[in-house]
């Protein structure tokens, strides 16, 4: 049933079950007995290595004293999303990239909403091919510039989600510095800003600029994306960007903290109309 591999959603669900088991004072052996399984299966479930069946989740919830229907439904929804994610044979499976990029694309493909904070770069779902290409050249890790092209194509394919029959809802807050940094030179940046203005017109996209005058702000530590799968924020996972890669935040409490940071920073940003006006003025200055 599905592939046996640890996934972000699987680890999130497993972590929730582990938390509930600890709160109930139950051992792994007791949990295993309740679903007529071995201790090793409980270990694999709690570490996100295997897809989970709805009957097992319901029995475990009963074993752990979880009676609130909404709490059980949330776990069942997360299990369903994880099973769908494991079965998916998306185009991203053959995409180049290392680390968490393929996993992120797979999550993005099944997400309903994404909130993205960017401090130094134009968000990936807004990037033009020329901007992405300029970033790849600047990175300097390529022996042959042609190696950059597959990654450029991947980013363009990701942007199709904004135009799907059921499009991704994107809420991006971008620091003014990312818009002034002339990646690729004035001509590339001018075209990039023009493209941002076009994407911002989509009904499923909300774009805000955090101006320099906002000063210190809650998200000053670095960029991140909050990925949502339902209207309930309880299922959110967060990817944080670092200089040498990225990391996942899968704990519900920690994810909620990032949501709070994003909301506080967004309140300091310009309104969407004023953000578009600023981008247009910067475009004219290029």
Write a concise synopsis of the structure shown.
50% of the residues lie in helices and 12% in strands.
CATH architecture call of the largest domain: 2-Layer Sandwich
Give the H and E element order: HHHHHHEHHEHHEEEEHH
Fourth-tier CATH superfamily name of the largest domain: Endonuclease Chain A
Structural class: alpha/beta
Largest sheet: 6 strands, mixed
Strand order of the largest sheet: 3-2-1-4-5-6
What would the principal axes of the Cα set say about the shape? elongated
User: Number of helix segments?
Assistant: 12
Measured by DSSP, the beta-strand proportion falls in 5-15%
Helical proportion, percent range:
40-55%
CATH topology of the largest domain: Endonuclease, Chain A
The termini sit apart by 54 Å
CA gyration radius, whole angstroms: 21 Å
How many strands?
6
Mean pLDDT: 87
CATH class of the largest domain: Alpha Beta
Overall tally of structural domains: 2
Residue windows where pLDDT falls under 50 for at least 5 positions: none
Describe the fold and architecture:
The protein has helices at residues 8-24, 28-34, 39-46, 54-63, 69-87, 101-110, 129-139, 149-158, 176-180, 186-199, 252-268, 272-285, and strands spanning 113-118, 169-175, 205-210, 224-228, 237-242, 245-249. It is 50% helix and 12% strand. The protein has twelve helices and six strands. A hairpin with an 8-residue loop joins strand 4 and strand 5. The protein starts with 7 loop residues before the first helix and ends with a helix. It folds into two domains: 8-87, lambda repressor-like DNA-binding domains (434 Repressor (Amino-terminal Domain), Orthogonal Bundle), CATH 1.10.260.40; 92-285, Endonuclease Chain A (Endonuclease, Chain A, 2-Layer Sandwich). The protein is α/β, with parallel strands linked by helices and 286 residues long.
């Amino acid at each position: 049933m599905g592939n046996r591999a640890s996934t972000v959603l699987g680890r999130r669900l497993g972590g929730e079950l582990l938390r509930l088991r600890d709160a109930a004072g139950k051992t792994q052996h007791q949990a295993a007995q309740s679903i007529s399984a071995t201790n090793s299966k409980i270990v694999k479930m709690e570490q996100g290595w295997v897809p989970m069946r709805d009957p097992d989740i319901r029995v475990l919830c009963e074993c752990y004293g979880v009676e609130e229907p909404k709490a059980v439904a949330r776990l069942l929804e997360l299990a369903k999303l994880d099973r769908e994610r494991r079965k998916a044979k998306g185009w991203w499976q053959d995409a180049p990239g290392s680390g968490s990029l393929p996993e992120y694309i797979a999550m993005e493909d099944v997400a309903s909403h994404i909130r993205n904070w960017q401090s130094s770069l134009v968000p990936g779902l807004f990037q033009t091919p020329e901007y992405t290409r300029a970033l790849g050249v600047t990175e300097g890790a390529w022996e042959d510039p042609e190696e950059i092209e597959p990654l450029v194509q991947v980013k363009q394919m990701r942007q199709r989600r904004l135009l799907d029959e059921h499009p991704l809802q994107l809420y991006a807050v971008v620091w003014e510095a990312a818009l002034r940094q002339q990646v690729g030179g004035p001509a590339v940046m001018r075209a990039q800003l023009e493209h941002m203005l076009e994407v911002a017109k989509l009904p499923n996209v909300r774009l805000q600029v955090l101006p320099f005058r906002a000063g210190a702000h809650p998200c000053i530590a670095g960029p991140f994306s909050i990925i949502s799968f339902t209207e309930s924020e309880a299922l959110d996972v967060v990817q944080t960007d670092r200089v040498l890669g990225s990391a996942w935040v899968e704990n519900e409490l920690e994810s909620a903290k990032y949501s709070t940071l994003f909301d506080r920073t967004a309140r300091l940003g310009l309104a969407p109309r004023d953000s578009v006006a600023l981008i247009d003025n910067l475009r004219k200055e290029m």
